[in-house]
Amino acid sequence: MSVNDKCGIFGILGAPEAARHTYFGLHALQHRGQESSGIVTSTYDEAKGRPVMPIHKDFGLVLDVFDDEELFEKTLLGDSGIGHNRYSTTGESKSRTNVQPFLVHDRKGNLALSHNGNLSNARELRKSFSERGTLFQTTSDSELILHLVAQSRRERRVDQIIDALGQIEGAFSLVLLTDDHLIAVRDPSGFRPLALGRLGSIDQPGGPAYCVASETCAFDMIDADYVRDIRPGEILIIDRENAARGAHEDFESVQMRRRYGVNQCIFEYVYFSRPDSKIYGEMVDKVRREIGRQLARESPVPEVEGGEKEPIVIPVPDSANTATLGYANENNKRGHPCYFELGLIRNHYVGRTFISPGQDQREMKVRCKFNTVEGLLRGRPVVVVDDSIVRGTTAGYLVDMLRDSGAASVHFRVTSPPVTGPCYYGMDFPDPDELLANQFDSVEEMRDFLGVDSLAYLSDEGLLEAVNKANHEQLGYCTACFTGDYPVPVDADGQEKEAFEWR
Ligand code: AMP
């Protein structure tokens, strides 16, 4: 697995305090990556007589990496900047050099890059560079993009970037910063989200600033307005002149040729994005509630038997909260009485845990994260709703905890289909043989294994129907982790076979 997956990216141009805005944007995107964080800005150095790009990046959360006020007052100066939060994935090298954004300086000036996604032709590119004697500073795929830019024979920096992007394949949402431009890019399939926002009005001195972010919750944090999504396959070049006039329609926009259709990651709606964000043009909250309602239509709460109390419906917090509200409401609407309750409480301060030898690592991880509210659960049928079952670790331990708390019966509902396939487009899943759904032949066998009274997943069709019902754009989604239908061909090693082309 590449080291570029599951990240949060942000960029801004035309804001006097670009670094501070980037910091707040990254803070709002913290859920997309907690391993490391970085910001680079662009400013003019009078002493050197040229533009420079100061940078600060390190391992840790945004608030810890940027805990020194001087960084904003003396170091990260300028009216434009980009930032990056990297997700922690197991087994990867903890090399400091892989922390983004990446920054290079060549004959055309400074260039910085933040990347969310996976390049699928990275191996071939790296091989061809190595044969030509190119030296790499990192083991990250994203560095390859910088080498491609530097080696382009085009004149303008922007054209060099366009040239380089035509040679990469896979899932990539990017923000790039040059001495003059902020450039936002989504791969032709649009696997990962990226939106354009505007901060301030044309009446203010200097005009508005423009920003781009993985999710719009970053815009809310700095009081920017959502303008539109970066379109799948679009390279949007944000320049100072048009930004100051508020003329975003006049930003140069180049469209990469799309060979495989639009395939936005549906798992962003299921689990990854925040409910207060708009992605793919629609609020995650709205989509997630519809997903919950669809699950209620397919698999309602169990019927209560004579003398039994109505079931309580509890989400696995926080990612299942919104869908569970939709699930409980729809059940009640359809004549299946139940109560929405918060029967599981999440501890948000979970980092590395030191446990005694002999203690089960995974069990302790789940116990550190969740506890039950016994008074709510005792003697009640409990329907626990989660957004997904991946390895089944969380589900297994939660079921034990709910039973220990005296639940009369435990029923599991999942607001997505069984996860059966790895993701080659940027979502971090374990190997296929570690996925719970691949270890059993039927839902019934999984029910036995998890020790629940009933188990139901949302169907593939139900998920798509719910997403399309809530988001009228109907642009097309990647569901490969559920269906095995990989929209962009992958070979045995998870590499795309064919390249994107230009129109
Ligand atoms: P597991 O315990 O392996 O079955 O993982 C399922 C739990 O992890 C669910 O509660 C999800 O909310 C969460 N989850 C789902 N997908 C991912 C992912 N790609 N990375 C981290 N957590 C995830």
Helix content: 25-40%
Please give the CATH architecture of the largest domain: 4-Layer Sandwich
- Low-confidence runs of at least 5 consecutive residues: 494-503
Strand content: 15-25%
Question: Which structural class best describes the helix and strand composition?
Answer: alpha+beta
CATH class call of the largest domain:
Alpha Beta
What is the CA-CA span between the terminal residues? Answer: 30 Å
Helical stretch tally = 17
What overall geometry do the principal axes of the alpha carbons give? elongated
Mean pLDDT: 91
Name given to the CATH homologous superfamily of the largest domain: Aminohydrolase, N-terminal nucleophile (Ntn) domain
Radius of gyration over all CA atoms, rounded: 24 Å
Number of beta-strand segments? 25
CATH topology of the largest domain: Glutamine Phosphoribosylpyrophosphate, subunit 1, domain 1
Whole-number tally of structural domains: 2
**Bound compounds, please?**
adenosine monophosphate
- Main sheet record: 8 strands, antiparallel
Condensed summary:
With 503 residues, the protein is α+β, with helices and mostly antiparallel strands. It has 2 domains: 8-262, Glutamine Phosphoribosylpyrophosphate, subunit 1, domain 1 (4-Layer Sandwich), CATH 3.60.20; 282-478, 3-Layer(aba) Sandwich (Rossmann fold), CATH 3.40.50. The radius of gyration is 24 Å and the shape is elongated.
